[in-house]
Known about the structure:
Layout: E1 7-11, E2 17-18, E3 34-38, E4 46-48, E5 51-53, H1 69-74, H2 85-91, E6 100-105, H3 111-125, H4 136-140, E7 146-150, H5 155-166, E8 187-191, H6 195-205, E9 209-213, H7 230-247, E10 250-256, E11 275-280, E12 287-295, E13 303-309, E14 312-315, H8 319-323, E15 336-343, E16 346-358, E17 367-370, H9 374-387, E18 395-401, H10 413-425, E19 433-435, E20 438-439, E21 445-446, H11 451-460, E22 465-469, E23 484-488, H12 491-498
Helix pairs in contact: 3-5, 6-7, 9-10, 10-12
Amino acid sequence: MAKRPSVLFFCKQCGHETPRWEGRCPACHEWDALVEAPSAEKPKAVSRGGRAASSSRITLAPASGLKPLKEHARERLPRIPVPIGEFHRVLGGGIVPGGSILVGGEPGIGKSTLMLQLLGTLASANQPTPGSLSGDAGSSGKTPAWLYITGEEAPSQIAARGLRLAEPLEGSSKKRGAKSDFENERLKLASETDLANILDMLETERPQIAVIDSIQTLRDGALESAAGSVSQVRECAMALVDAGRRLNTSIFLVGHVTKEGAIAGPRVLEHIVDTVLNFEGETRLDLRVLRASKNRFGSTDEVGFFEMTASGLSEVSDPSAALLDRENAIDKGAGSAVGALSEGTRILLVELQGLTVPVPGGGSPRRRASGLDANRLAQLLAVLETKAGVPFGTLDVFASAAGGFRVEEPAADLPMALALASVATGRAVREGLVASGEVGLGGEIRPVPRVEARVAEARRLGFKQVLLPARGRTTLPPQMEGVKILRARTLREALALGLA
């Protein structure tokens, strides 16, 4: 009788491993997040390509002993510049050789298109191998190789998409980025899902960059579980990350995210990789946002903007204009306010909208948020009712950030409060007004940083009034003339100044 395999449980949110099932993950405290996956026995050593290795991964070379930190610093390789400016910005200045990057997003959002354009622009730039990479490529200065390994589509489908991306954008002034080259012989494509074969490809080609699309399709033969399970995704990702560090190959892992929180979502991989990039947006809309939620080599504050077109992703040079309905943003009527928000080094003008309707039949009021934190919305409604006297107890409340953009900065509190109070009282927000400020639980308006930049962006797009917290910088340079600055200490004062 065959021996029943031992069982482990993994948290689908944080990847924590435990030998028994529990209703709540002991690590991240998420309820009903543990899933069952058979544990793998220790793989036997096999010979692959004349070297000893486990059947599941390339092992790192043995440590050469302790050395002073400054000597390790001399071995650091320069970053690989990314010709796509928005991508380069989010990565914090280029791709780190040997680093691992997870690109997550919902199916159909454009992850594969983004990765293919990245390799095409790098091939067009024909960059030399930075520093001294492993193998002959580094020492001889050969043009590096770039690999695209797909487990979801046929190579002919990927190639057809690449040729379409190489075509110019007809009748459009949108900037896609650097020129793409998909005829470069060093840009190679393969359809493969077996981990051992992929590791052999990396060992043979020693590429500068390798894209794995997607990590959920890979399978390690040493494990009994199916492709896409937590154990398969974790082991395959760890093997690829180890190989990338050993070969100085930058590994891009594409991962799917579902609304139900799939077992093999990027949260399982966040602790394994160096950088986590989220590709966001509504699949029904053209705007796409690339942001970093983890970056060991740069900031997580920067965001990149793209527009999905018939010929691929185009860079958006003016995000504020893309997020705003410029013809109607200055005077949208009740229920709409414009906020000046800071995202990395940029200031974005984002339209925030609110809608209220009477609760039918005297039931419990609903609160729904799109692109906003639902808990923050509930807190803001409580402050509006208790500190500013705006009643919401018998109203269903719906709030959203227009354009499919996800708002995270606390400075969005004040414009969101204006939009909600506007629709609840029937008073429109003042024409040409932009607001920015954090609302405290006591109803006070707290100061925000980068006031000058916020005012300058509002002025550039034609807004004439800016509502700001009373605390903070009180004087602005002469070039800000023409913009009226309104100051408020409390939420009640802000509503009196901001509503017509």
